[in-house]
Amino acid sequence: MADSMPAGPSTAISRRTLLAGTGSIVGLGLLGRTGHARATTTAAAGPIGNGAHVPALIVGTGYGGSVAALRLAQAGVPVHMIEMGMAWDTPGSDGKIFANTRTPDYRSYWLRTRTKQPLSNFLGFPLDKNVPRYTGILDAEDFSGITVYQGRGVGGGSLVNGGMAVTPQRDRFGYVLPSVDANEMYNVYYPRANAGLGVNQIDRAWFDSTDCYQYARVGRKHAQRSGFDFVYVPNVYDFGYMEQEAAGNVPRSALDAEILYGNNHGKKSLQQTYLAQAKATGRITISPLHRVTSVSPASGGGYTVVMEQLNTGGDVTGTKTVTADRVFFAAGSVGTSKLLVKLKATGALPNLNNEVGKGWGDNGNVMCGRANHMWDATGRLQSSIPTAGIDNWDAGGAFAEVAPLPTGIETYASFYLSITKNPHRAAFSWNAGAGRVDLNWQTAWKQQGIDMAKSIFDKINRKEGTIYRTDLFGTYKIWGDHLTYHPLGGAVLNKATDNYGRLHGYSGLYAIDGSLIPGNTSVNPFVTITALAERNIEKIITTDL
Ligand code: FAE
Q1: List 83, 141, 401, 534, catalytic entry
Q2: How is domain 19-544 classified at the architecture level of CATH?
């Protein structure tokens, strides 16, 4: 997706700006869409208090966490959500909540002093620049063989992602989640997830005529001329709003290169969908800038949960200990895996089984660009929201999303993020000496994914007489093989958990996020994460509560 573009001048930032950007991080809990606070006896306004006893605590506010929160709250259960990132509900001094991809600033990266843009170079120039260290929205988390990009803040990955809302083809579902009944998923939970997420489709006539999707039409022409299936992909960005952007009637977001560091308009992130609905029940409290560090059995039943409070510089300003009857791990594939592996190894949760930390995959992500001929211009104005893909999964093991490069200048480049059937799976382990969790992924493992992506792009290059770009990921480097946007696995369903996400070894502990999925979804993952969470929480509410 709209990964990154040439960076603009570095943003000067004053202490006042920083404070303004901090946002109101408290008091999010009880305000529904109407703005009316609904008091309940069990859910408190503002962040969770030290010593609190709560019925359900959710670690993380991404897709899995938001589904669990809404359905538990609707079932009458007061829910406390703990989120290490910020609330992202208050504008900075520029009047905007989120930074633009062309001018990354303090809001853009999680506790880095230099940006780490997925697309790091352009025309021979490195793009990264210094930024003040801040609890920004995009985490580029480095492990030895891979950088894993993740959203940080209330809404998790929905804040930063490209919104591509793809349901896997049904005949591929057995590969994605082998232990789950496909009929149930396709009849009930995928439709429920799509409705809950506010998924919509682009109007084809508009797609065919608007300047901002010229790049995608070039992608279509090249795909079809080489005999590949070209598919239109639904999105959670409101295409009606985008049409109004193009007409000049509303403030621009997708048409102003917003993505990756947040969208100020148009996109239905979880804040606008599941979380808004959950808050409207009056039973939800969210504590941003709180990071869960420990979960262990409490002497009187339930679990003791320890968390650190952070300031926007990333310093720990306090520690809180609470008790929860049930804990839902929804910290994302990496966050949940890191917590569980550490807690098992350090003796806090020794009865977790040996599957914890295993089965982690990168959804086969690899990126590349192609250099087009001068007569195949991709357009100066590019919508940052991808809406199409090339499907060569069955023949070549690759599904390539036709991604934008919204630099504001004509690049004559076609850019793609491929999801490939890369079979490699990595494991997390506790590094006692360093006091951290490591991941044993190797960069060389990407080669199989690259070979699968080449099943599409070698053919297109041959047909079109074009070549790969070598200037986007370094100097003379074709493949973006150092990263993933789609971490999956680490607490795999029916292995580390039962077939509904109940962690083996402890009743009342659940995994309910991307960690359940064994490494690959064949397409972009969040619809599957949402649908699986819908399935699992329904079962848990019916049988456990
Ligand atoms: P996630 O959304 O990552 O939420 C986990 C939350 O837990 C985060 O808010 C964390 O800050 C928080 N957290 C972690 N550790 C702790 C802790 N110890 N204490 C408290 N809080 C914690 O998890 N997917 C698509 O389907 N379509 C796309 O177009 C797409 N584009 C993407 C573009 C980018 C740049 C990125 C980074 C991802 C993209 N994805 C896309 C992937 C998608 O966002 C991701 O699969 C989901 O967000 C994962 O959902 P989870 O619920 O697993």
Answers
A1: 401
A2: 3-Layer(bba) Sandwich (3.50)
